Amino acid sequence: MTHSRLFPGFGAGEAVAPLAALGFTDASYGNDMCPRFVNLSRRLVVWVDHVNPAERECEGPRFTVQESDEEGNPRFNGAYVCTDSLPEVIQRLSHAVGPF
Predict the structure, then answer these.
(1) Whole-model pTM?
(2) Quick check: is 79 in a domain?
(3) Are the C-beta atoms of residues 15 and 65 closer than 8 Å to each other?
(4) How many domains does one find in the chain?
(5) Of the candidates 86, 83, 11, 89, which has an alpha carbon nearest to the alpha carbon of residue 44?
(6) Strand, coil or helix: what is 25?
(7) How far is 3 from 69, CA to CA, in rounded Å?
(8) Alpha carbon 77 to chain centroid, angstroms
(9) pLDDT tens digit string along 69-82?
(10) Rounded to the nearest 10 degrees, what angle do helices 13-21 and 86-95 cross at?
(11) Domain-embedded: residue 100
(12) What is the distance between the alpha carbons of residues 15 and 52, in angstroms, rounded to a whole number?
């Protein structure tokens, strides 16, 4: 499945090209609260929540970067980056060496 089919209206499309350029692929799943993109070699997950803060299921920033296991499943042991800024996410991911 893709984020656009599972989460229409979330506005995640703006993140697809920059994340794909960094090796992330759409791993959105119907039981997730929002779209997610994974990079298996770096073991990272990027969550992209609704563009409208009032529509988000959980309070917080729009973008969250977390560690994943070797299959791309998120590990809920904290977040590396939490922000409303896609450029900040891309900048941090671009300059990180290794997993993060």
Answers:
(1) 0.90
(2) yes
(3) no
(4) 1
(5) 89
(6) strand
(7) 21
(8) 15
(9) 999 888 888 788 99
(10) 10
(11) no
(12) 15
